[in-house]
Design a protein that fits this description.
It is a single chain. The protein has 6 helices and 15 strands. It has a 5-stranded parallel beta sheet, sandwiched between helices. It has a 5-stranded antiparallel beta sheet with strand order 10-9-8-12-11. It is of the alpha/beta class and about 240 residues long.
């Protein structure tokens, strides 16, 4: 599932953006019925305050820069400050406003009034980025369904038989079929393979003693004897980077 937020204090514009999003994914899903299908959920907000109050973890946010009360720039700063790692697309009437936005790492921007053709070009690039942006997130495919999992949300990965179980910071467990060596290649250096069946996110490591890694939340994960020394060195290197 791909979670998308649209935040614009102009209700008509917000409705239009929601409509073109739905049209775009409907078109993508019908281009080739035998290819993967994109399942989406779109939420609409008429002010930045409402967006920030939502407890949903969005993958893509369309955000109007010029809004009453809290404007889009301040909303974006607070979103990033709250840990939002997804794709941010600004909506603006003035192209010049975008040059003030680099600090909040926008992916792109739409200038009002925008053409649906230009919107589709942005979305095509964005989907490509989602599939190839292994430094920040993991694209999980289960049949025709696809999900985007932020690296920051993965506490550890466990492999049982041929199935991978991602244990997330939200306490959710996401399972799919893959090989652990292939999964390891997709992740970055914050993850360490401490055992043939486990990859842990060093961010959530809370202790290590007698061959047991203790994770945030109390989960205990075995560290193989052959990997023990290298694991200790990896902990020190991670602490230096932090």
């Amino acid at each position: 599932m791909i979670y998308i937020a649209v935040c614009d204090d102009d209700a008509l514009m917000a409705d239009k953006i929601c409509m073109v999003i739905l049209n775009f994914f409907h078109k993508k899903n019908n281009e080739n019925r035998f290819a993967k299908q994109y399942n989406i959920e779109v939420a609409q907000f008429l002010c930045g305050e409402a967006l920030l109050e939502s407890d949903k973890q969005f993958d893509i946010v369309f955000l109007d820069i010029q809004m009453k009360n809290m404007d889009g720039m301040e909303t974006a700063r607070r979103l990033r400050g709250n840990g939002f790692k997804g794709f941010l697309i600004f909506i603006t009437v003035m192209r010049e406003m975008v040059f003030e936005s680099f600090a909040v790492q926008p992916y792109d921007y739409l200038v009002k009034p925008f053409e649906e053709f230009y919107f589709e070009k942005i979305m095509e690039r964005l989907l490509h980025s989602m599939c190839n942006n292994s430094e920040k997130s993991l694209l999980i495919q289960r049949g025709y369904d696809s999900s985007i999992i932020s690296f920051d949300n993965i506490v550890y990965c466990e492999v049982i038989d041929r199935k991978v179980y991602l244990h997330l910071s939200t306490l959710e467990v996401v399972d799919f079929y893959d090989r652990i060596d292939k999964l390891e290649a997709k992740l970055d250096r914050r993850f360490y393979r401490c055992h043939r069946s486990y990859l842990i996110n060093m961010k959530y490591l809370r202790g290590y003693k007698n061959g047991i890694a203790r994770m945030e939340g109390g989960t205990q994960i075995p560290v193989s004897r052959l990997r023990s020394r290298a694991f200790s060195e990896a902990i020190l290197q991670y602490m230096k980077r932090e």
